[in-house]
Design brief:
There is one protein chain. By secondary structure, this protein is an all-beta fold. It has a single domain (about 10-400), classed as Porin (Beta Barrel). It contains 2 helices and 21 strands. The protein has a 14-stranded antiparallel β-barrel with strand order 2-3-4-5-6-7-8-15-16-17-18-19-20-21. The protein is elongated and about 80 Å long. It starts with 17 loop residues before the first strand and ends in an 8-residue tail after the last strand.
């Protein structure tokens, strides 16, 4: 999982790459909402306080695949890419009647691009400029949730970020045999721990109706790691190793991150969900991350505050109808708007999309197969930038077993 490419976006060359939104199959189909969602049938890593909704006898395992298609266009060119990746796995289990825990791993961000430009130089003739990036940062985490009062849940995630991002820029003079190629490679390596916290409170309106309010918070946290920059020239480009064959190193710098070099931003989110038990859930989220005062080790990245708005709905026609399977299916739909953390050519990157899907239950079990489809657009073809249209398909299975429950045999 950790060696795969999660994107082909040229925007992933900036900052920490393309940041993955959290959430599993249910969340994705509902627009990526989850700050106020609670369920005893699904895990939800968007708010660690949600884990206490698990039954004290339940054990959950969630895993999923993501397939994606990206169409990239400018005013002059058009290209398409697609891939499929193993996305995440997580397990959840009760600690006692008052709380539960989870552990899991999933991508945090990724870099994946490869583009070129050919131009003419007065002295050296045809000049090929190439930019290449690869790598990912992963998040391994443990979450804990407790329910100190009947309608209040608290939670915390302990997350470990680790991985590498590599970017290479090069110039090759195609018609001048004596001219050396030039290139620069930069590596960013991250390995550190950060925390995020959550709470949820449920307000009953009637026997079956309720409103849940949720909040999340993560403090600004310095990250350990280092950045590495190599500028060199040579006779032939070699992306790995020393960058060039017969290389002549012009500059090499390696810098450990200090407290002011790279940080996880302070973030907070709010959510609300209206619930009719086993019938309807309507959820809305607001999430913001303060990337505007975070400094990156490269000279390209300019960042600003990242904000995300999302809305989602889940509807179950009749989950107690044994004769109609389609009545027991959970139908989901949602949408999101994102003002991303990157500013390029004085344009803040925007992303909006719609999603829909279904939770397909297995008979006499909380195990379910969840599918979600997401359509969206990111960026713009104006200002010399790239417009991305994407289509994502998510396949997620939620396996449920009973925890330490003795089986009876006749």
């Amino acid at each position: 999982m950790l060696g795969q490419s999660y994107t082909f976006s040229p925007y992933s060359r900036y900052g920490l790459g393309e940041i993955e939104h959290r959430g599993f199959g249910r969340n994705t189909a509902m627009g990526g909402t989850g700050i106020a969602l609670r369920s005893n049938e699904h895990l939800n890593d968007l708010n660690p306080a949600s884990y206490s909704a698990m039954d004290s006898s339940s054990f959950f395992f969630e895993t999923g695949l993501k397939g994606f298609y990206q169409n990239l266009s400018t005013t002059d060119n058009n290209a398409s890419f697609s891939d499929i990746n193993f996305e995440f796995f997580a397990i959840g289990f009760p600690l006692a009647s008052w709380g539960a825990a989870t552990i899991g791993i999933r991508p945090f961000s990724g870099t994946g691009y490869n583009f070129a430009n050919i131009s003419e130089d007065e002295d050296f003739g045809t000049e090929l400029q190439e930019a290449y990036g690869t790598g990912s940062i992963s998040r391994a985490y443990a979450g804990f949730s407790a329910k100190p009062f009947k309608f209040l849940s608290l939670g915390v995630h302990f997350s470990y970020l680790f991985g590498n991002l590599t970017s290479v820029n090069s110039i090759d003079y195609l018609n001048h045999s004596s001219a050396l190629s030039w290139g620069k490679r930069q590596n960013i390596h991250v390995n550190d721990i950060f925390f995020d916290f959550g709470l949820q409170t449920t307000i009953p309106l009637s026997e079956k109706k309720s409103i849940t309010v949720g909040a999340t918070f993560s403090p600004k946290t310095p990250l350990k790691g280092y950045s590495e920059e190599l500028v060199a020239r040579g006779t032939k480009i070699e992306v790995e190793g020393e960058l060039f064959v017969d290389a002549d190193t012009l500059r090499y710098n390696k810098r450990d991150f200090s407290n002011d070099a790279l940080k996880m931003p302070m973030s907070y989110g709010f959510g609300v969900a209206y619930n009719i038990k086993n019938k309807l859930t309507i959820s809305a989220d607001y999430l913001t991350n303060g990337w505007d005062d975070i400094t990156f080790p490269d000279e390209f990245s300019k960042t600003t505050t990242r904000t995300r708005y999302a809305l989602g709905v889940e509807y179950i026609p009749n989950n107690r109808n044994p004769k109609s399977y389609v009545s027991r299916v959970r139908y989901r739909i949602g949408g999101h708007m994102l003002n991303d953390y990157l500013v390029i050519n004085n344009y803040q990157l925007e992303d909006f999309g719609i999603s829909f899907g279904a939770g397909l239950p297995l008979k006499r079990s909380k195990t379910s197969l969840n599918v979600a489809f997401e359509f969206g657009q990111r960026g713009t073809a104006n200002f010399g930038l790239v417009k991305e249209k994407y289509f994502n398909v998510y396949l997620n299975i939620t396996l449920h077993e009973f925890w330490f429950l003795k089986q009876k045999f006749e």
